[in-house]
Specification:
Blueprint (H helix, E strand, L loop, with lengths): L1 E4 L11 H13 L4 E4 L13 E4 L2 E3 L2 H10 L10 H28 L1 H15 L2 H4 L2 H16 L7 H23 L13 H15 L6 H7 L2 H14 L35 H21 L12 H10 L1
Parallel strand pairs: 1-2
Antiparallel strand pairs: 1-3, 3-4
Helix pairs in contact: 1-8, 3-4, 3-6, 3-7, 3-8, 4-6, 7-9, 8-9
Length: 315
């Protein structure tokens, strides 16, 4: 099994919440999976990351990946009762409905955060062809999520931001009360699925240096949650001083100082057809750009001397 995730930085193995959730689920359940840092959507069957590849099978979303792992008897929730499982589902829905919207807005829709942090970070790691349009594609998708929930998001952005901020603050307050003095949310000796969801979103706001980030202030105002995030990072995603080559199982993950996943196989050789297509597409795109901006001009055919003499003869 191989899990492909977005790159990490600022002390996180990935700054993408979906990638973080998949990573956390795998770590908490002790699944022997090879983790690969993948910043090329072309490698994904549907052009999105993360994804889990098992032979010819490919699972995309965190829910699909968790369901597949559960079918293989890998789950961090096996010690929970039926009541605790129902409570987990309710909290997951509540957290996703609140923090996922906050992530879409403050991570991608907010113009300053997008221009200063998210677009440079993603663009720097994408293949050349994707740099020009893929960050904007993610942002348009995020705008669609926000407008589907708040129909007046474009007409009243300040009001929508205040509402999202208030709703997120209330969510963090409830999560802090739920956690209390326990190490993990369900009161077990090890984290469960709800921990993977909460950690994936809160750690993004806690670590990524967004220009405008009120959610971080809410987290720092609740010491129990901040200690909770630090505990999971230290215990399940330790920082390593250097890369170690070879197969890395999810039970012994080590990360570089900037959060990159050790054991990445981004050097995988691409098929020749992919390389030829990339060269042709890139060349055509550069020629189109040069012609449109009058950097490249097509030569004009000049009339020959014989043609000029012929024209004078018939005049």
């Amino acid at each position: 099994m191989k899990l492909y995730i977005w790159a990490g930085a600022w002390g996180l193995p990935s700054i993408d919440p979906d990638s973080l959730q998949c990573l956390a689920n795998i770590r908490f359940a002790g699944v022997p999976v090879k983790i690969n840092e993948c910043n090329n959507p072309w490698r994904s069957p549907v052009g999105r990351i993360p994804f889990l590849q098992v032979g010819s099978q490919c699972m995309q979303s965190p829910n699909d990946i968790s369901a597949y792992l559960r079918s293989r008897n890998f789950s961090a929730d096996y010690g929970l009762s039926s009541v605790e499982c129902a409570e987990t589902l309710a909290y997951m829905e509540f957290v996703w409905d609140t923090l996922q919207i906050a992530y879409q807005y403050f991570g991608w829709v907010h113009q300053a955060n997008f221009d200063d942090v998210m677009r440079p970070f993603i663009g720097k790691r994408l293949p050349w062809v994707y740099k020009m349009w893929y960050p904007e594609k993610i942002r348009k998708r995020a705008v669609g999520v926000i407008t589907s929930v708040y129909s007046d998001a474009e007409g009243q952005p300040e009001s929508v931001e205040r509402y999202i901020t208030q709703k997120t603050q209330n969510c963090i307050k409830l999560l802090s009360e739920k956690l209390g003095s326990r190490e993990f949310f369900m009161g077990k000796s090890s984290p469960t699925t709800i921990d993977s969801v909460v950690f994936s979103y809160l750690s993004f706001f806690w670590k990524v240096p967004l220009a405008h980030n009120p959610v971080k202030e809410f987290i720092k105002a609740t010491p129990t949650l901040e200690s909770y995030l630090a505990r999971i990072l230290q215990r399940y995603f330790p920082v390593g001083p250097r890369k170690i080559e070879g197969q890395i199982s999810s039970t012994r993950l080590v990360y570089g100082m900037d959060g990159e996943v050790i054991g990445s196989d981004d050097s995988t050789e691409y098929p020749l057809s992919h390389k030829i297509f990339a060269i042709v597409f890139t060349t055509a795109l550069m020629m189109w750009y040069g012609y449109r901006n009058q950097i490249v001009r097509l030569p004009r055919s000049e009339p020959s001397i014989a043609q000029e003499d012929d024209d004078e003869y018939w005049e």
